[in-house]
Specification:
By secondary structure, the protein is an all-alpha fold. 48% of the residues lie in helices and 0% in strands. Helix 1 (2-12) packs antiparallel against helix 2 (17-24), helix 1 packs across helix 3 and helix 2 packs across helix 3.
Length: 155
């Protein structure tokens, strides 16, 4: 911020943008931008006493306003993927139903992209809790004989 104060001080002294840039160590366009922002903020040299470095920065560089974006009605992605498990149900069919309820909603490609993102958040791990020894599962060959060490009577 020290450079901004120096730019304003030198400008008030009648220096040109080129001279200010050379003495402060910034480009001529930066000097012009600082002076434009100070003019928009209604600031000139000498600066008010109560204006510290942070307040000066906030006045010259306010945060940009939020970008006005289109807001779309979100689908119930859990219900969408529950329905996809049913036979004959496709994403296109579900999108068609979604657009029937929300005519200004997502287009098909955006609907599919949001669906893929939702699936990507799901955990592929199945967490099952059971007491030790309560369930048992063993993998056996279909014939009942092991292919590694044959039991007597198995060929």
């Amino acid at each position: 911020m020290r450079k901004i104060k120096d730019v304003l001080r030198l400008h008030a002294a009648g220096r040109s943008a080129r001279q200010i840039g050379a003495s402060v160590g910034v480009g001529r366009s930066t000097v012009a931008e600082y002076l434009r922002r100070a003019d928009v903020a209604g600031l000139s040299w000498p600066l008010p006493e109560e204006l510290d470095e942070e307040a000066l920065e906030r006045r010259l560089f306010p945060p940009p306003p939020p970008a006005p974006g289109r807001q779309f009605a979100e689908a119930d992605w859990a219900a969408v993927h529950r329905e996809l498990k049913r036979p004959g149900v496709t994403l296109a069919l579900l999108w068609d139903e979604y657009r029937g309820q929300h005519p200004e909603g997502y287009g098909y490609s955006a609907f599919c992209e949001h669906s893929r993102r939702w699936v990507g958040r799901l955990s592929p791990v199945s967490h099952q809790r059971c007491a030790s020894g309560a369930t048992a599962s063993a993998m056996r060959p279909a014939s009942g004989c092991s292919s590694i060490t044959p039991a007597p009577g198995c060929r």
